[in-house]
Amino acid sequence: MSNTFGKTYRITIFGESHAPEIGVMIEGLPAGSVIDRAALQAFLERRAPGRSAYSTARKEPDEAVFTEGLGADGRSDGTPLKAVIRNTDVRSADYDSFRSVPRPGHADYPAYVKTGRIAPGGGKWSGRMTAPLCIAGGIAKQLLEKEGIRIAARIRSIGGVSETAPFTQEFDGQTVPVTANSPLIAKRFEEKIAAAKAAGDSVGGVVECCVIGLPVGLGDHPFGGLENRIAEAIFGIPAVKGLEFGDGFAVSALRGSEANDAYRFEDGRVVTKTNHCGGVLGGMSNGMPLIFRAAFKPTPTIYKEQESVDLAAGKNVILKGKGRHDPCIVPRAVPVVEAAAACAIYDMLLGEKEGKKEPAPSAPAGDPLSALREQIDAADRQLLDAFLKRMDAAAAIAAHKKENGLPVFDGAREAALLEKIAACTPEAMQPYTNELYQTLLRVSKDYQNALLREE
Ligand SMILES: Cc1cc2nc3c(=O)[nH]c(=O)nc-3n(C[C@H](O)[C@H](O)[C@H](O)COP(=O)(O)O)c2cc1C
Fold first, then answer.
1. pTM of the model as a whole
2. Which domain holds residue 439?
């Protein structure tokens, strides 16, 4: 079985729905990474069962216990990290009638042929296996946030009812996700689920996800692109049957003039006026929000009578669902989608950094300065990356100014910039940031003047 995902941030999920425990082994987490355990637990809680009238009645605390690789100070020690979750509310007897009768829509029949048994609770094919995925994804999400990359998902539709409010909005010059559904639509979602549940049936729906703050160019052509890697992770979530990026299938009905996202400069940054491509071109991030949607089928186990077969007796039978099941998977799948995306993106980001990394300066083992120097090195890499991007934008501005006969120096804009930087800086640091930005503005002008002289 392939229960491992990732090349640099490698996660291996183990356990079964009705085994004593489930868990995840994480390799490649940089030493010294700080994990906020309370925030991680709150993230797991969003997926945990038994928390609403519209989820399975199985009640699990879903507490992540770290048994290897994490120090008492919450920092990873650079060895593989192991986290387990105990299964405490198991009722395997509920599955006695399914031992040789596969549930239509579930993985039971092919799993029986492959492994010789139908495991209670769906075994390794249970939605419960997304809890350890959320541990790995929750950690990746926290570490991505430190790099300025934010992942958020929300329900797009349930049972054919769709959210129509925009998924992202501009706030204080930044794009932010709107994760809550509008109250009227949330109520209609609940009604759809309640009606299906009352009929002993289930409904499906769509989860949409956005990733904000990706560096332009993240993704490898042709098989390591953002779409490829996210698809691999998202299709690891049980019950996902479709995935689309940006306008997805709908883009095929547009003309090029409607589907293309026009470019423009905004505050020295290249942005697009629309985002039909969902922030990804040629498998790479174009710097706009990455938007994708995952379609979930209705929960396979239902309480209505269905036709099936008894594989042991070799005869056709009628099966009626038993046990505790989600009448709709979608609400609990929202954090799972975020987790899968976080694992894929953090793996790609670490992989790219790894590729660019210079040999580490040798520090004696146990040197108390080495961890701090690593932090400085990491900050320097980010600074350099941001500086080079800034200079690229300055070059584009120089070209624009030349074309329009404008001067390189714009005193009012410089003064406004210095004021803005001071406002965002703690008072004690203001003299230093002021000096840094004065220098930055000077070298930027030098570069622009040199470019203008060139031609
Ligand atoms: C969060 C989550 C919860 C799920 N809960 C259930 C459930 O209660 N009952 C069920 O039959 N399937 C449930 N599933 C779906 C099955 O695990 C899945 O349909 C099955 O493994 C077959 O795989 P496939 O649908 O990807 O083909 C859940 C999936 C997820 C992601």
1. 0.79
2. 368-454
